[in-house]
Design brief:
Layout: E1 13-22, E2 25-33, E3 47-50, H1 56-73, E4 78-87, E5 90-97, H2 117-125, E6 139-145, E7 151-157, H3 159-163, E8 168-173, E9 180-181, E10 192-198, H4 201-214, E11 216-219
Antiparallel strand pairs: 1-2, 1-4, 3-6, 4-5, 6-10, 7-9, 7-11, 8-10
Length: 220
Amino acid sequence: GGPLLVEEYVPGVEVAVEGLLTGGHLHVLAVFDKPDPMEGPYFEETLYVTPSRLPASTVAEVERVTADAATALGLTEGPVHAELRVRDRRVFVLEIAGRSIGGLCARTLRIGAGISLEEVILRHALALPLEDLTRERAASGVMMLPIPRSGTLVAVRGQDGARSVPGVVGLELTIPRGRSVQTLPEGDRYLGFVFARGANPDVVETALRAAHAHLDAEIA
């Protein structure tokens, strides 16, 4: 007697869009590639790399579909985060919400003269000037560190090696030692985040994977 939700799996390449709505117009701040396969039934989001390496025409279609989805939901002002998949040149919306990117991932973005995404959102909310919403030229990315198994976190070794990888600009662990950790689908946290910048998305992705290879989480 209750409502039913019917879903269909959409294969394809997954991307994320970060944007800001002003007066109903979507300013796309970044389109992120997700290089790791996003296949289920359960999976972590791991790598976010921008700018996207998809063809320019595909990125334009991703941006158009995101803007149309925001309009359809009646969103007109403030941050927008969307997840989409591309299959056979068609773009499918997985989800869209009037919020910014989650966790510490916003640290990957520098807008205009180098201001943060949080400052962009606050300046918009306070009706302060926003003259330039162009993302920095350098490529950037983040790896959300997955939890390899459930238990109690004893230590994360190899942090100095991870930080020494060329292109890595930050490593932040967000679960203290001694705390319990849980894998998907019950878990809802990451061990932490690695951030990188470089001349192009390939350099950034390589740096993030190299940093991750240095890390070894001991879980009892």
